[in-house]
Amino acid sequence: MPPPKTSGALSVEAAIAGRRSVRSFTAQPLALEELSQLLWSIQGITGNRSFRTTPSAGAVFPLKIVAAVGGMGSTVLPPGLYSYLPQEHALLPRRIGDCRPALTGAALGQESINTAPLSLIIAADYEITRTRYRNRTERYIHMEAGHAAQNLYLQAAALRLATVAIGAFDDTSVREVAALPANFHPLYIMPVGHPPNIP
Global pTM? Predict the structure, then answer.
């Protein structure tokens, strides 16, 4: 993917002020540069290769990001599922085909997933953190997922895109649709796209 940018036209204050949960999207596909920037904002590498864009307790990084690209969801990528590889800042194809209808069904029929060109699934392996933090595992992982989701909200706002955090879904169904390994638990589905009121 294209390398991420570390400066932009919109200030962080303006991105915070403009951040909203949006559930309606146009059919306009996302450019590869936009997808690159969104993924980097969630789990990208910063500076030293041990640092990332979101804090992680003990720097163990238990999160996994899966990109579900819809039909005509990208100007370059075919529809399908892709795993984000932070160290390489690359996408690994996992499954070909538009999984938005199945993912919508797993999320109790929330149509924003079906209409957005892209949905990013944030999942976590609890055992990665549990080996170090034991009874505080859930707390730390949920904090980390929240940091990642907020970064995505702000990056989307900075790109004049929009997203919404979805937490109502059947975990087993989402795991199957997203081709997640059994040890990863889905925490968020975040549809992303161009909102109707922004050209």
Answer: 0.95
